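Reading a protein record of the kind used here takes only a little practice. These numbers are not coordinates but entries in a learned vocabulary of local backbone shapes. Here is one such record, which you should read through line by line.
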Amino acid sequence: YLSKGSLTLDATEKELETFDVTRSPQYLLQQAYVGLEQAQLQLTKSMSVPDVTISAGYRRLQGNSGDNAFIAGISAPLQIFDRKQFAIPGSIKRVEAEKHRLMTTKVQLNTELHSLQSQLRLLLNENELLETSLVPVSKRVLSDATHAYKLGQASYLDYVDSQRGHIAHKDRLIQVQFEAIKYQIAIQQLKGTVVSRIQNTPQGKCHDM
């Protein structure tokens, strides 16, 4: 069994703090998709604007007068068969779809964060109960039962029961701490702080085998 102190539960204050999920990597990624579709829409609109041609010059009039006339004109292609015009509605729909996904992402992240924090709080409460009460009490019970058994004042079954109870509490403590660490990491991943937490956590020394 793992001894006390061999499994370390980091401070959890940062994981339980209120967090703006719009700073989450998942939200920022979806926000980038919205920006990408908006840029594509602007590009599609700009490509659909017809090229206007302005012409000007002198032209000799027909007849015997020999006079010249200044002539100016503007021409633009008809957009009746311009396929780019049909691309704009589709691009607008894609922008709206990405915006909807962005709102959905925000709701999902808030829900997920609240659930993770609630589970972490429950585990921390159980961890405190085990560390401060159940494990120490079961250890004293085991110590008393061991002493009594050696003196012939307790049966072997009583000794085994006390040993089993203490081991069960220690096992549960290890399991709770392990689960709490997993929830910590999940919250750090959601917030995008897992790398910085690892970098700021003191690392153990490596020993040659």
